[in-house]
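Chalcone isomerase family protein (Roseateles agri), 195 aa
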Amino acid sequence: MRGLVIALLLALVAPLSAKADVVEVAGVKYDTVNEVAGQKLQLNGAGIRYKAIFKIYTAGLYTVTKQNTPEAVLGSTTAKRLHIVALRDLPGNDLGKLFTKGIEENSTREEFAKSINGVLRISEMFAAKKELMKGEDFAVDWIPGTGAVVTVNGKVQGAPIPEPEFYASLLRIWLGKAPADYQLKDALLGLKPTR
């Protein structure tokens, strides 16, 4: 009888602990721990990108240790991951243009010049994709010694982008002085609860 009670208690507790390993944002599940190039990363924060009242995508930022300022995230040379999931169909050309605009608005002229190789590559990737459909995702990992590795729906897109300036410039789209969405910036920095 005691064994049956223990088994029932474990069955009740197991689903609760499994849920604690995932953060859900607008129906998208982000694991609280992820791995990039053999290094364990934790979910720094996750949130929703809104345009007017419309939900456009969710984003999750993974770092080695929790960071709650843009300077700390951008200054860290350890592995990182930015993971985005589309909540509606997004034209690839528009994504490429928005990334370029976001990088330009949040970078100095010198930073942008050092990032141009990566900016052109990521714009070409999304132009070739044509459309990121609702539910599809992409991630950009920073792997020290390798560079930025872009995956779309889990498939690596071309060779790594080696310039660290590109990855920092890319993150500034969400964490810079003129972020794509101020609420999302706070959410990625873990300063605001996710919805």
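Helices lie at 2-20, 70-75, 92-105, 109-129, 164-175, 182-188. The chain has one domain: 23-188. ok done for today
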